[in-house]
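User: quick one - fold this with flavin-adenine dinucleotide bound?
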Amino acid sequence: MSQLAYALDNQPCVQQQPVLLCQQQDLVPFSGVAARFGRHAIALFYLPGEEVELYGVSHIDPASGAPVMAHGLLGESKGEFYLAAPLHKQQYRLSDGQCLSDSTLKLQVFNVQLQHGQVWLLPPME
Amino acid sequence: MTTSITKQLLVIGNGMVGQHFIEQFLSRADAAQWQLTVFAGEDRPAYDRVHLSDYFSDADAGKLQLAADSFYRDNDVSLKLSEPVLAIDREAKTVTTAKARYFYDKLVLATGSYPFVPPIAGNDKPHCLVYRTIADLEAISASSKDAKVGVVIGGGLLGLEAANALKLLGLEAHVVEFAPQLMPVQLDKDGGELLRSKIAQLGVSVHTDKATSSISEGTEQRLQLNFSDGSVLQTDVIVFSAGIRPQDQPGKDAGLEPGARGGIVINNQCQTSDSDIYAIGECALWQGQLFGLVAPGYQMARTAAAVLCGDSSQSFTGADMSTKLKLLGVDVGSIGDAHGRTPGSISLRYRNDLAGEYRKLVLSADGKQLLGAVLVGDNSYYDTLLQYALNGIALPAEPQSLILPQSNSKPLLGPAALPDSATLCSCHNVSKGAICAALDSGVQDLAGIKSCTKAATGCGGCAALLKSVVEHELSARGVAVSTDLCEHFSYSRQQLYHLVRVDGIKTFNELINSHGRGHGCEICKPAVASILASCWNEPVLAKPHVALQDTNDTFLANMQKNGTYSVVPRIPGGEITPAMLISIGKVAEQYQLYTKITGGQRIDLFGATLDQLPLIWQQLIDAGFETGHAYGKSLRTVKSCVGSTWCRYGVQDSVSMAILLENRYKGVRAPHKIKMAVSGCTRECAEAQSKDVGVIATENGWNLYVCGNGGMKPRHADLFATDLTDEQLLSYIDRLLMFYIKTADRLQRTASWMNNLEGGLDYLREVIIHDSLGLAAELEAQMQLLIGNYQCEWQTVLNDPAQRARFNSYVNAAAPARSEFGFVPERGQLIPTRQLINKETTL
Ligand SMILES: Cc1cc2nc3c(=O)[nH]c(=O)nc-3n(C[C@H](O)[C@H](O)[C@H](O)COP(=O)(O)OP(=O)(O)OC[C@H]3O[C@@H](n4cnc5c(N)ncnc54)[C@H](O)[C@@H]3O)c2cc1C
Ligand code: SF4
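Assistant: Sure. Structure tokens for the protein plus flavin-adenine dinucleotide:
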């Protein structure tokens, strides 16, 4: 197993307990913020009023390895939301992390939820 | 293996026509049977002589070269540089050079012309030069180094080009012409007179009706011209441009039939009196006529290549000698029978001394056909007139409408009206029919047409016409070019700008709800944010705008490859006090930022983490700096030279002007970044002509250049207006920038914006200088609003705790250590680790 140059890594998150990440007021509507959980960094995108209001994906850019994904722009195409990577503008679908412009790239997806004004990281869905 | 006998084809001369011949010949299948050897009199492969004068504007001879060095190698052409042919032996079928003898089966003469130097006593003194080759230009350049005055002998087309070159070299330029008027070949008396007065206004002294009798040593300057009327003129440099003579030497010596006034006689197949020897280009004489232009030379090259390969479909049957050019910035055009020599012809003239415009039509006796025309001052009439003349299109009932100024638009002969046989590009002989055929075969756009037909890639004179034909034909074929910004807005950027302004729209949501659909994307969000900022100049990080910005605009810093940011304080005009310089150094040292001086005369500090940005900026602002907007699509820097403050050549205070401009336009959001520069004299040390807005000092004020850029596709800025006062300069730039902001596409630099404006530079001059759209006052007022609303965005962020909170890397954790981003030392500073991702990592 190889290591990133970071204190962060891209290994799958296998956390089995719910973890409180932050408060709802830390989120920025229709934009991203980053939260830390151990060696993971999670980009949280908040879409108030939409069917899915909160998305969590890895903050690490799969193409460059830099912790920047929360700073990408939120986009929408034919009703689907995606994230445009800030360095080279690849598009990643928020629902499953798949890169739309390069099939070899994928963002890790985190199971996050907004409950009573709090943002929770839940065990990965099967 | 069977050996096929290769035949020897020798070409003498690797000028423009010789080169075109090689390319035409190689494109034919039969070429494989031939071994091609080319003798060049000069020490470099063929270059674009038509654009020779560009050498003075960017001094890069390499850019003029017509084919890459590899072309000759790849095509197995043996190119013998600096090996002129001295003699031809037609009996033995050989040519001789200083190095060897070579056999030929067929021989092509493409030896061009040489400049005629009139037999004046003293014409061989040092600093007496000519204007034909790159070597000549190098000599003129060297001779001008310590010179003050330059004289061109000859007031024809090339003489005026040479005078412009002398002016660009910083000399006081004079033109001496033997005839009573300038350009006697192409222009009539009225046209010549007007051209003279325009050129005199540009600071070139014109002396007509002057015969030079001798050249002697000067007293004030190096040389003295003595005229037959007893007057004298002192100068440091003399350039002879008194016409050209065909270089017929090796051919004539070999007994090929010469013309009475020089040249090698050819028939319609471009064969000389010896059917194994061809002559093409300026050395060839066809029916008593020499052709001193590239287009006819190219036609001869095509013909000779075809005939040599046994293709009898091509022949040379004369050529059109019409010309359109810009001399010292003055439009001049001459079509067909400009002097009205056809018996019975009638002429119509329009002369306006106030506007400095002159136009003449020469009509057939029945008034139905256009035989010739003369234009001075405005060439926008040229393309249409040329099409009438070349294609014999019947004139409208009132032909004067073709040259009378019209308030709204030029009398365009619409692309639809042109017959298929109409030649659009005479350099490459491309007809409208050929363009249509290319479109029918699947070519979809202008660029494709240019590369497959070569149209508009010669002298470029037909570019505008070609564009209109292609666009017209595309739309006739139902190909619609979509200008929609993205799937959320069915409008172009320009239309959205208009909607925002007219409806007073202040947020993205308002706009997408009223004029768009969906939620937006990374294309439309920043574009709309920029439009909103350009219209109202509210802080880009104000609440409703945060989610719209590109990362760089969100954090007011440029994101670098490892996820850290750069910090670029504004240093207006590149002027900085030692104390300020030290304070930048201190900040950089404290945060271990990699420090580099930029091309825009300021300092970039790299490697700050998000959390450090507000801390760093607080210190910079305390030290008196402001944001440099390096992250924004907005004014970057105004580069300057020290100008008259220090430089012995400087004629205006370029630093003060640069600082004034930088402070005036800082922060204004535009469709793309904007760069400017101000030079203190024509030596142009600030490289203003490579900027969107370039200002160059003159004795009388400022010359304004517009729409240049460096980068991937460099473009020289165009001279827009001359000798402006400070006030004029500011108001023109105000209008220009605002007009650009209003009408350009997303991410379109000023250069391509202008190229895509219908009417280009001339149209822009009309709008900005002559206020043809009646917009000037509004544009200035809108710019004033933007200038008035300026604030340093970093100051605004630091004053607002909520905005400041955006700079925390994590909402739930402390700031990450800088080491997490991966740095390694290099040459005493820290740079990003070369590779962040170990390639084995499976994602
Ligand atoms: C400043 C300038 C501006 C111009 N502007 C325009 C314009 O706007 N439009 C236009 O249509 N035309 C223009 N022209 C004219 C155009 O450049 C010429 O018509 C064209 O270059 C002719 O091509 P050519 O091959 O016949 O001759 P050249 O280009 O002169 O080439 C002839 C070559 O043959 C070489 N040569 C001569 N003798 C020998 C020998 N014995 N052995 C080996 N090599 C030899 C010479 O060294 C030279 O390199 C301009 C010319 C100049 C100088
Ligand atoms: S451009 Fe500026 S620095 Fe260069 S010579 Fe002129 S005044 Fe001097």
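One thing worth noting: The pocket of flavin-adenine dinucleotide (ligand 1) is lined by residues B 12-18, 39-42, 49-50, 52-53, 84-85, 110-113, 131-132, 158, 161, 247, 250, 281-282, 292-295, 297, 325, 459 (CB under 6 Å).
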